[in-house]
Hints:
The protein is mainly alpha-helical. It has helices spanning 21-37, 55-68, 91-103, 114-124, 140-148, 197-207, 222-233, 263-268, 273-281, 296-302, 317-331, 333-347, 360-363, 373-377, 390-397, 404-416, 424-438, 442-454, 462-468, 471-486, and strands at residues 8-11, 40-43, 107-110, 154-157, 166-170, 174-178, 187-189, 212-216, 239-243, 246-247, 313-314.
Amino acid sequence: MIPYDTVRVRFAPSPTGMLHVGGARTAIYNWALARATGGTFVLRIEDTDPERSTEENTQIILRAMRWLGLDWDEGPEVGGEYGPYFQTQRMDTYRNALETLKERGAVYPCFCTKEDLDAKRAAAGESYSGYDRTCRHMDPEKAQARIDAGDEHVWRLKVPEDHGPIEFDDAVYGHMSFPAEVMDDMILVRSDGSPTYNFAVVCDDVNMGITHVVRGDDHLSNTPRQILIYEALGARTPTFAHLSMILGSDGKKLSKRHGATSVEEYQQRGYTSDCMVNFLALLGWSLDGETTIIDRETLCSEFSLDRVTKKDAVFDEQKLDWMNGQYIQSMGSAKWVEAARPWLDEAGAVGSPIDLRSVYPLISERLEHFDQIPEKLSYLFWGGKVELDETSVAKVLKKEGARADEALRACREVIADESIPWECEPLQSACKELCETLDMKPKNLFQPVRVAVCGNMVSPPLFESIELLERADVLSRIDYTLAEVFGGR
Ligand code: GLU
């Protein structure tokens, strides 16, 4: 017997594409519920659609799950006592369940061909209300004879005639009731012996002892059908919790039109997995209605279904950017260098003498995601060269009456002065003194230097940057700029 006193939840993706952020949220809720209750989190791969399920997609989903840190207790790669955890490897369990249903008289073979059904549908037109149950009333012996003769057939569920409304208390949607009369005698096993989606899911959830089915509300209409299958099997129905849809900022269902929709894309753009878990967890759940930064430990101890709302959640990318910025600011330099490594390398950091940990204070408040690093930090790795941004040249260096060349020459002299320690503070104050000497506003003095050294006018703090560079390189950048823009030193 499977114990029902501990929570057993599952995430059951179909490997037909990348892990969508909606799917990731479902996974997070299941995982957090298992952790908060001391239960078990099962990962099951629903790969029965041979055309759309691929091994590659399965790997992409497993990688995304690992990256998010959603460790599963049972499933692919870790095993478990209720395996296998791929539906394609569970065909014998579906066959056994069909045998049980036959013994219980809960199913019947149906020999109607596709053409028969199409004709019935066409004849009924608008009033078609599902299969007319022709084969349900066939004499069992005759049916068996046709099976023995090899006649093609499917197996349908015999929905009880006198079934009252199908009711359940959804942990998110509340009390739900569906009339049983409108339920079709659905196909459970196709003519090739393969199980339909609803049948396979119920068999697995029963055999794996799942106590709570937490999934997207696109499955809400499947639930009454699945309850009929639980009842036919004589199995206990789990608690259902259906999660609302995720909308884009325009109020429409989140889709490719809104930009990135897969976990992998966010990973590639340099969001941290801690932030993604936090952000996605808040799409429909809240800790106390106001806290926004919630770490994994808190999520795993405080998560509960009664704080999940049925209101549609809006995926606000600006909020995500803000939140990821918060995570970057609190991660510290060592972790940052490690996490941001691929983007630092892309910016040119490979082989650089700069201690990358000392770059962190310059940039930690200026980053929303790591793929902004090449644009914002590559100037640190240009050596003695500088790539001048045209707009900054026009606005700062060539600005009428700004005397940018004078500013550059004067600061160059200070920077070349080896008696000044090569540190931010003394260099900055020595340059600042020039404001008085030259009768120039600090902005007019420093902006040209910023453009000459960092290439543009929006770089991280100037003298903190200069301190990280070699003196000869800074001078060479200024000389280059003077030559390029003003025709000489
Ligand atoms: N495999 C289904 C899907 O990816 C999930 C089934 C379920 O959670 O019941 O939509």
